Amino acid sequence: MRHLSLFLLGALAGCAATPPQESGGSLAGHLVMSPRMQVFVPCHAQEPLWVVVDDALREQLFTRYAELVDEPGEEAFAQVRGTVGPALDCQWCRDFPGSFRLEAVLEYREASATDCR
């Protein structure tokens, strides 16, 4: 599986973004959940978004993420509902070009080579 840290190097080095168009809608992509990195990379987007989520759902995502990946930083696939927002100013999120307010998880599983095609 692809690791987000390698993806971030390219994305944060100045790649042009293709922001998701479905504000408030359903998006598919890759999710990484750790205490210092809560990131969603929508399919066909070139830049990751910082995940904003309520505490109860965050805890569920952390627990399930640990079951889906072999090592930290590895991506899991998710179909989610939420809204794309602006960049945020917090200790871990300020380097991300935008945010994603995650409202619901429709699908959450191991990533595969056929995701986002």
What would you say this structure looks like, in words?
By secondary structure, the protein is of the alpha+beta class. Helices cover about 20% and strands about 35% of the residues. The chain is built from 2 helices and 5 strands, in the order H-E-E-E-H-E-E. A 5-stranded mixed barrel has the order 1-2-3-5-4. Strand 2 (about 35-40) and strand 3 form a beta hairpin. It is globular and about 30 Å long. Residues about 5-20 have low confidence and may be disordered.
Q: Tell me how many strands there are.
A: 5
Q: Helices and strands, in N-to-C order?
A: HEEEHEE
Gyration radius (Cα, Å) is 13 Å
- Main sheet overview: 5 strands, mixed, barrel
Q: Helicity, in percent?
A: 10-25%
Q: What shape does the CA trace take? A: globular
**Number of contiguous helices:** 2
Which class of secondary structure composition applies to the elements?
alpha+beta
As residue ranges, the low-confidence spans are: 5-22
Report the average pLDDT across residues.
84
What percent strand?
35-45%
* Spatial strand order of the main sheet: 1-2-3-5-4
Q: Termini, distance in Å?
A: 16 Å
Concise summary:
The protein has 2 helices and 5 strands, in the order H-E-E-E-H-E-E. The protein has helices at 4-11, 55-68; strands at 26-34, 37-42, 49-52, 76-85, 99-110.
List the defining traits of the structure above.
19% helix, 117 residues, five-stranded mixed beta barrel, 2 helices, alpha+beta
Task: Summarize the SSE layout with pairings.
Blueprint: H1 4-11, E1 26-34, E2 37-42, E3 49-52, H2 55-68, E4 76-85, E5 99-110
Parallel strand pairs: 3-5
Antiparallel strand pairs: 1-2, 1-4, 2-3, 4-5
